[in-house]
Amino acid sequence: MNSRYKRVAAVTIALFAFSCDKSDDQKATHAYDANKGKAVYAVHCQSCHGEAGSGDGFMGSKTATKPRNYKEEGFYYGSDFAAIRKTIKKGIVQNGMPAFDSILSEEELNAVSMYIRNTLGL
Ligand code: HEC
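# heme C complex -> structure
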């Protein structure tokens, strides 16, 4: 009897820990401010990527590689939140995509990654 209770308690604790992990993850991917994402994009990204993410910003034709049209061509470097965030953070410097890790805060990185994925992406 006693050990059965212990087992139930252990399972409950494990489930609780698991659900905490999950909600942290959801916080990272879903808690973001869409207006902030849009504002960061307008200041730091639009000049190359264009207002709608189609790669037609005025500087988009001057980079080593033309930025892709997110809606029509998708994301070559990965389309989930983590991949997009990593691309933005580290850049693809040799092709003309700057690294933003020393320019944007973690919160701004989250917001602009979600904005690109949810609003401008496929
Ligand atoms: C100086 C021009 C320039 C600026 C500014 C710029 N980018 Fe880029 N970006 C590029 C180019 C060029 C590519 C394409 C690189 C390639 O295809 O190898 C690219 C690629 C990307 C990709 C990868 C797309 C894919 O196909 O996977 C993402 C995501 C991205 N940029 C997001 C951003 C965000 C967010 C900002 C602003 C915080 C930003 N970029 C600012 C030029 C720029």
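# post-check
The mean pLDDT is 82.
The chain has six helices and no strands.
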